[in-house]
Design goal:
- The complex is a heterodimer of chains A (109) and B (117).
- Chain A has 109 residues and is mostly beta strands.
- Helix content of chain A is 0%, strand content 49%.
- In chain A, strands 2, 4, 5, 6, 9, 10 and 11 form a seven-stranded mixed β-sheet that branches. A four-stranded antiparallel β-sheet of chain A has the order 1-3-8-7, with no helix packed on it.
- In chain A, a hairpin with a 6-residue loop joins strand 4 (34-39) and strand 5.
- In chain B, strands 2, 4, 5, 6, 9, 10 and 11 form a seven-stranded mixed β-sheet that branches. A four-stranded antiparallel β-sheet of chain B has the order 1-3-8-7, with no helix packed on it.
- Chain B has 117 residues and is an all-beta fold.
- Classes of the chains: A mainly beta (109), B mainly beta (117).
- The A-B interface holds A 1, 33, 35, 37, 43-47, 50-51, 56, 88, 90, 92, 95-103 and B 35, 37, 39, 46-49, 52, 54, 60, 62-63, 96, 98, 100, 102-105, 107-110.
């Protein structure tokens, strides 16, 4: 089973700043099959990025994903107030089996 | 527009079996392009994949839960279900059903299940 480790656990930034969230895998993720989700309190996760760098339908272009192998990054180029939430990565390299990271909380500084 | 809705008891006693159903509307559960999954989230914690089923009935489970999990599909009702046996307090969580194709792009709103006597 691939274990995903997200860092930092909490990221404190101000609106307008750039956010960089990391997701590290315990072994190489096949075909860079990695997704990112945003979750706000009381709501289900929302898909942002799949296949490491493809934006899901309706996701603003300030969200971008990159990386390969064992190291992946979600970048939010310029934070909007609605972007403060918890972010999770998910690997599906051995789909339909998958695993999630423990999450990064993006909070307002 | 695809919608998923979880249903089932909000309270389960220790050692009992949890049974949840996910009703799919807006598309057929028999679509061969996708699969259907259960994911849970303990209060204040992260997401945990429980298992996945194809409309054909093929199932895949999280190894850590495999001995206690059964997922089934009822194509005539456009539903799929989760059974989780021998429930303990550690199984208290919001349980989500979702549609996926590697990543999960449609989610239900989730249902909170509390394990308590």
């Amino acid at each position: 089973e691939i274990v995903l480790t997200q860092s930092p656990a909490t990221l404190s930034l101000s609106p307008g700043e750039r956010a960089t969230l990391s997701c590290g895998a315990s072994q190489s993720v096949s075909s860079n099959y990695l997704a990112w989700y945003q979750q706000k309190p009381g709501l289900a996760p929302r898909l942002l990025i799949y296949d490491a760098s493809r934006r899901a339908t309706g996701i603003p272009d300030r969200f971008s994903g990159s990386g390969s192998g064992t190291d992946f990054t979600l970048t939010i180029s310029r934070l909007e107030p609605e972007d403060f939430a918890v972010y999770y990565c998910q690997q599906y390299g051995n789909s339909p089996r998958c695993s999630f990271g423990q999450g990064t909380k993006l909070e307002i500084k | 527009q695809l919608q998923l809705q979880e249903s089932g008891p909000g309270l389960v006693k220790p050692s009992e079996t949890l049974s949840l159903t996910c009703t799919v509307s807006g598309d057929s559960i028999s679509s061969s392009s996708y699969y259907w999954g259960w994911i849970r989230q303990p209060p204040g914690k992260g997401l945990e994949w429980i298992g996945t089923i194809y409309y054909s009935g093929n199932t895949y489970y999280n190894p850590s839960l495999k001995s206690r999990v059964t997922i089934s599909v009822d194509t005539s009702k456009n539903q799929f279900s989760l059974n989780l046996s021998s429930m303990t307090a550690a199984d208290t969580a919001v349980y989500y059903c979702a549609r996926g194709s590697g990543w999960f792009f449609n989610w239900g709103q989730g249902t909170l299940v509390t394990v308590s006597s």
